[in-house]
Amino acid sequence: METPSLWVMQQILVTLILLIQSSVAVNRDNFKTCQQSGFCKRHRAMTPGQSAYEVITETVNVQSTSVNLQLLNTVTNVKLTLELSGLERSTARIKINEVEPIKQRYEIPIGDVLVEEPKRQGLKKLEQTSQNFYTEDEPVVSINAQGLLKFEHYRHKQEAQPEENVEEAKEGEEPKEGDENAEEKPAEEEQKKDEEEPDLWEETFKSFTDSKPHGPSSVGLDVSFPGFENVYGIPEHADDFALKTTKDTDPYRLFNLDVFEYELYNPMALYGAVPVMMAHNEKNTVGIFWHNAAETWIDIKSNVADKNFFSKVADFFKQDSDIPQTDTHWFSESGVIDLFVMLGPKPKDVFKQYAVLTGTTPVPPHIISVDGITNDQDDVRNVDANMDKFDIPFDVIWLDIEHTDGKRYFTWDGNKFSHSVDMINNVASKGRKMVTIVDPHLKKDDNYKVYADAKSKDLLVKNKDGNEYDGWCWPGSSAWPDFTDPEVRKWWESKFLLSEYEGSTNDLHTWNDMNEPSVFNGPEISFHRDAKHHHGWENRDVHNIYGHLVQQATADGLILRSDHKERPFVLTRSFFAGSQRNGAVWTGDNIGEWSHLKVSNPMLLSLNLVGITFAGADVGGFFKNPDPELLTRWWQAGAFQPFFRSHAHIDTKRREPYLLPDNNMKIVRNAIRARYTFLPYWYTVFYNTYKNGGPVMQPLWAEYPEDKSTFKMDDQFLIGPSLLVKPITEQGLLVWYDILTAEKYLGGKSIYVNAPLEKIPVFQRGGSVIPRKMRVRRSSGLMHDDPITLFICLDRQGKASGDMYADDYHTFQYQKGKYLHRQFTFSNNKLTNSNADKNGVFETKEWIERILILGVLKKPNGVAIKIGNQQQQLAFGYDPNTSLLAIKKPGTKLQEDFVITLL
Q: Where would one find the signal peptide in this protein (predicted)?
């Protein structure tokens, strides 16, 4: 145990570190604080334990899979309906809505976020009583335990009434039984609120006024996690992985925004919003999903984290502490309360429960992106040639907005890209692809056929008066397709057909940017909240799913282009729950500083935890010019993140690896090549995630849920179950763990090892089998048939296991059973290759070229392989210093069953 004096010193040190921040670049005046948001102030001002709601007992209706009842607001006499449903896989759903709203409230349509209507199941299996949900007789989730339920009903604005008319009933309200004056009191109360809080009917931020013709519409509810000190999720925020208390800050905000050079370690909103939170302790993991597309704020309080310094010191000396509990408070500007409670009890159970609701990431096409942005055809040709000259593999060349004709998407600048098809074909001849940016804003130019077509078909977002919404973005005056309308999404899909997108080919993929949406002259650089969408919904109702629907329509467009045969690749900046079904995500406009490299790990862990698995951060930062050491470390870190891309502002220095000093170039080249060797493992991890849900890049507690030392750890992570990665994110730092070498370290403790610039600390778990491809190729597209090397690391019992997935790497045939899934098991000195899934049938040319086994304690007398009834001896080598056994050229096909025995 630490001494009190040392403990106090550490607390002071932590405080000092927290005060040291990087320079602030974002203009925070452009974005609201809670105090500038009317509904946020109202919900935050609520007093716990003073709920205005009570159950109308005669309305309670208990069914086998649900409980339905009504709630009465005793202040306004407005009634709400509440439904509690039991769902499959130990999940519950709570929906609260107005009984008789004056207009329909927005609910996200099935298929936009939820993959289907959730399947119901008996409530008894949920072990639910009162407001608590239990796991093995322990409460793990409490709903409305603090009484912070608040549901602002739609209403008609009442004009001030003469004193003699106050007894008239307020429209839409009913008197309480037995109270002759009940009609007067709600009307008086509502009128008083309207006078005291003018933002109920309209709200002004800077020079923008937001009209609210039906008054306030926010909803809120508190959710507590008894027994849990740590909660995670609710991306996107540039913050720690374990979420912090908001006692002394604004709540965490979810409102998709274009934030220029975002600030670190605060709860400000960023480009995407996934309203999913998970709580984890050594016994249980649980989660909640707040199914609401409006702006949302989340307050977090902890009876552990919220203690002041002296209370912590007192607890230490008393050797006493409270049972931890984390209380959260969720409130959204509009919509309904639609809350899913996922009861685990283990991390993988919660991952699966959420995946059943919103889907998983499809197996991506065989693409590893590493190159950056190019400016014209000559630039594309030079980058392609130089990467080959320096033997650096890459998969994708990206074209930003400058490739278009005057920022008109689906077009080409004829001077820069006069032969776009030839250019794409030349790049594709080496197994590579190209990606062009396609943003959702359309230049308002009647000679621009995409805009003219959308305008003529009335497919565009409207302003509050019903006219075409006009905003400013890269092309100047712009309009936006209304992606909340399914017919508009079908129209957008058609624009990717080769006959529509002239100059494109099937080897051209897509990148959606500015889809929050970004509106340069709009409030908070986005749409006005009273802008009108499909069915008259206001942007306040649907804001956070707009970018998600843009990416969904784009992905469907690429699928349509290939007649539903080829997997699409679509990168997006804005996202919501369910965006994992559509492609990849990146963390936006980061800065080329060590602090932004460091924060990329917790940001990507948070995204992966809530299903956004194909995620990465721009290598080197979008802004500024990192020095060679930082850029080298960033390439190394990016090489072990799920999505891997170098991308920078047009005014920064070029970032291609071959432009680095020679020593740095070689180190970066080795890191990129290492990523390519792990391609079979990456692919297998993505397949398992597609089948079962869960992260690709995961926190250590997901695999080791009882190890409390991992609960706040976000400077290292696991890729799948078997690769531990500790990127270097601080200048000149010595770190724990080692790279994949023959050196052996015992687990259960932290070990310091030297990490010179050429070393990236990666460690393979003892007890695992990882397939790799060791041929150096120009791109992943040329690796499809390359042979496999099995890297086997034995545990202390001399055992190991792993798997490998393979298919044709580009079509949807794997969803029809055209795939191969193999299981490798080493036990009792025998390695077995067997079929892991009999539902998959696929013939591949891939074969096993070499097997390396670490942890073999003595040299065997021989090595034999048995295939069917035939057995033969294999050549091998053994290094007693590293306990490495190398089996040479077993020569078997990947799909071939065999047993290799150490004699």
A: 1-25
